[in-house]
Amino acid sequence: MALKSTVFKAQLQLADLDRNHFGDYTLTLAQHPSETNERLMVRLLAFALYASEDLRFGNGLSSVEDAALWEIDPAGVIRLWIEVGLPDEARLRKASGRAERLVLIVYGSRAGLWWKQNADALQRYRNLTVIQLGSDDGEQLARLAERNMKLAWTIQEGTVYLDGAEIRPQRLLG
């Protein structure tokens, strides 16, 4: 018998001063049985960083054809494809060809090594932005994970402030 996803509900109060974007979002996230709380919360962070009325969570780990998050216009054009983690270059190549913009958020203890191994190959994707979280940022986010969350996040000058934590994403490419 296959394991079922765990459902997380998040009420996100967002003040993105960098983009002049403010909103309250009620979100439902399905955590795949193999997904960690860290990855789940990095997906939620990705939502906060690129929030819009049309941004949605994909099936992610359940479907290799889906992004972690994406924004698709009514005509079916993928405006934004967001990946999180350390994907292989082939997956990014495919996503780059399908989407107008591609964002990758790398995190974890192996992120620096992954970047060194892949940086040259990723330079050719003109629509790709790569963001790296600090080594403990993902852990800070994971500690906030609860089945029902109320989160107030402020983004200012590239820093994300949330519930006593400060996350400083670093842009590596794009």
TrEMBL record:
Any single Pfam family the record assigns to this protein: YaeQ
Membrane-spanning residues: none
SUPFAM superfamilies found in the cross-reference section: Restriction endonuclease-like
Entry-linked InterPro entries: Restrct_endonuc-II-like (IPR011335), YaeQ (IPR009822), YaeQ_sf (IPR038590)
SMART domains in the cross-refs: YaeQ (SM01322)
Annotated PANTHER family: SUCROSE PHOSPHORYLASE
Protein name: Uncharacterized protein YaeQ
